[in-house]
Write a structure and sequence with these properties.
The chain is about 45% helix and about 5% strand. By secondary structure, the chain is mainly alpha-helical. Strand 2 and strand 3 form a beta hairpin.
Length: about 325
């Protein structure tokens, strides 16, 4: 390097083993005033002007902004490629602003978008926006959102949407995605989220499952208990007792034919009253989406077999647990 100090760099005592400090050989200032001159690529001493190094790399942005305050950042790198869209995604986009309020640029942007965008891509973009908005409303994780978008893209690519409601397809994709990510939602939750009839979601779900060959697995009671207990403001101990109750209840012959949702709701009802922090059937019904009559009928079965369910492993978990706290159906 030209005019580079040939002598060893001075190392401070405290940082001797960890770092090297560059100083000017003329000034010998322990706190050097070194300037990075990116225009010439030099490291220059700000006090005496000695060049300490050359050919430094400019790590700043590679563009300069000439737009006014109303313009956007004219980055030439563009947006990141969307893996859920086809094509090169290198279309030219006419800016909406910069016409001094005449509205011409906005009209040109709209017209250009209609003439260049493909119908298939427009449908995908619109569906992706709707899936993201719906999932955000229920705080559904991004991993599930991405799975739902992948499922919808498969539906579009294989043209399976013919004769089906687009809202029902989106609802079924979200339902499938939740199951595939081991965070299942009930049909009633998806109905409340998407405002689509339950029968339409069920029919579309079965159709997509058969056509796409999607691995949906099964929904167990344990998959639902944690979320329901949290929404009911129940303690962690109540959740653990409920989990043990459902595992024992599934082994009972008398309860065969009951859905996992009904079993989970009835076990929450029993566990909450068992430790003296009871929730009524209506509150559980509102959270779980199961009718009060269904909860009470299922509870009646497990109450009749309480001797088999209330093992020492359950009763010893909480000092407040007592069979006398249970409500007689």
């Amino acid at each position: 390097m030209s005019q580079m100090d040939k002598r060893p760099h001075v190392i401070s005592g405290t940082d001797e083993r960890y770092s090297v400090k560059l100083i000017c050989r003329n000034c010998r200032d322990p706190i050097p005033n070194i300037i990075e001159d990116f225009a010439s690529g030099d490291l220059v001493c700000g006090d005496c002007g000695l060049v300490l190094g050359d050919r430094i790399i400019d790590t700043r942005s590679e563009w300069r902004t000439f737009a006014n305050d109303e313009g956007d950042d004219p980055s030439r790198v563009g947006n990141a490629a969307n893996p859920f869209l086809d094509g090169a995604q290198l279309d030219t986009v006419i800016a909406r602003g910069g016409d001094k309020g005449s509205g011409l640029a906005k009209d040109l942007n709209r017209t250009h978008g209609r003439t260049t965008a493909q119908r298939h891509e427009r449908n995908l973009v619109q569906a992706y926006k709707e899936i993201s908005a719906l999932c955000d409303a229920y705080d559904i994780p991004k991993t599930i959102v991405d799975i739902a978008k992948q499922l919808y893209k498969k539906v579009e690519d294989e043209q399976l949407q013919r004769g089906k409601s687009n809202d029902a397809i989106i609802a079924a994709c979200i339902f499938l995605a939740c199951r595939q990510d081991n965070a299942p939602r009930t049909f009633k939750e998806i109905c409340a989220l998407t405002k689509v009839d339950r029968k339409d979601i069920g029919r579309t779900f079965k159709f997509l499952k058969s056509k796409l060959g999607a691995n949906t697995g099964t929904t167990s009671s344990n998959d639902l208990i944690a979320r329901f207990c949290s929404n009911l403001n129940l303690s962690q101990e109540t959740w653990r007792i409920t989990k043990l109750l459902t595992e024992k209840a599934k082994e009972m012959e008398h309860i065969s034919g009951k859905s996992p949702l009904s079993i989970a709701s009835a076990c929450i009802y029993m566990a909450s009253h068992l430790i003296g922090d009871g929730r009524d059937a209506k509150a559980i019904s509102d959270i779980a989406g199961v009718g009060e009559a269904t909860i009470k009928s299922t509870y009646k079965i497990i109450y009749a077999n309480r001797k088999e369910l209330l093992t020492p492993a359950i009763m010893d978990r909480n000092p407040k647990a007592s069979e006398s706290n249970l409500i007689v159906p």
